[in-house]
Each structure stands twice: as structure tokens, then as C-alpha cells.
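Session log. Operator J.P. requested a structure for one protein chain; no other inputs attached. Running the standard single-chain path with C-alpha cell output.
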Amino acid sequence: MRRILAVALVAAALAAPASGQQREPFEPEGYRTDNYRAPVPATLEGAHVLTTAEAEAIWRAKSAAFVDVLPRPPKPKNLPAGTVWRDTPRKNIPGSIWLPDTGYGALPPAMDAYFQRGLAHATRGNKTAPLVIYCQADCWMSWNAAKRALAYGYSNVAWYPDGTDGWERAGLPIEEAQPEPRSEQ
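Structure written below.
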């Protein structure tokens, strides 16, 4: 009995993450629908996962469309009448297009159409054109959006999981961004 207990304890210790480390979650079957700011998987089936150095090389070569999917900050509830509300400025990787709110696990039809139009615009309608999709570090929004782009039939999708957090940590340039318009124009 002691031996069985000892074997079980050793197996549990080997399976547990080292002190201070978290295990990365496995890829879910579908899209993540809650707790979007949490550790993300190391992989995304069908997509290339980029390091900051790889994302920088692609950006410098101008060989892919960069798509930021960070949501817009919500307007605070219960603002006093007459209060002027201004969105917090978004700074992203220069040359990116910003398609906010397109990384949620479930998209309403209008938002789904907006994301599809934005990707078509970014790739000039070429579903084989390289795409780099990002948000911030530990943000499931970019994972969901890259997975959705694959589901739309885009075949050259790269996911940059460190996003603007990793980009800024590397001392790379960022610029203030404005979201792509949501109406068809």
C-alpha cells in the first residue's frame, strides 16, 4: 500500500508545474467565451504562432497584414449627465488595422460581417495572403480571432500571442490607432 501511495505521489509531483510556473491551457474545441484575459495555449491548430522576433521580421519586411482585435474600452456606466466620454487611445503595431470587438467567442451577425469585411480589406480579398492577428499578452481575443479567420478559409494565418505587450517590451514602435469603420462604405 505504501508503495502504491509513493508511486502516486511521485506521478503527481512530476505532473505538477514547477514552483511559480503555470501550465498553458490546452486548445479548446471551440472559441473561448469568457475570462478572456487569462493564460492562452502555446498553439493554434492551422496557424503559425509567432514570437516577437518573428513578428518583427514579418513587420519589417511588410510581408503580412497585421490585424489588432483588442476590444474598445466600455463607456463607464452611470456617468453624470453632460460628462464627456473619450475612449482610451489604442496604440498598436504601426500599419495594423484595428478591428475591435471581433475576438469574442460568439459574434453577433453584424460583428461577424464587420470582421469578415475587415479581413477582406486587409488582404485585398486574397484568402492566401499572410495575416498576423494579435491583441495583448494572455488575451484569448486574438486566439479566437485567428481561429475564426481560419474558419473563414484564410490559409496563411499567424497568431502573435504576446501582442502589443510583447512588442512594447522589445522596445519596438507603436502608434495611436483608430478602429476601422463598422458600416459598409
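Operator note: The chain has a mean pLDDT of 87.
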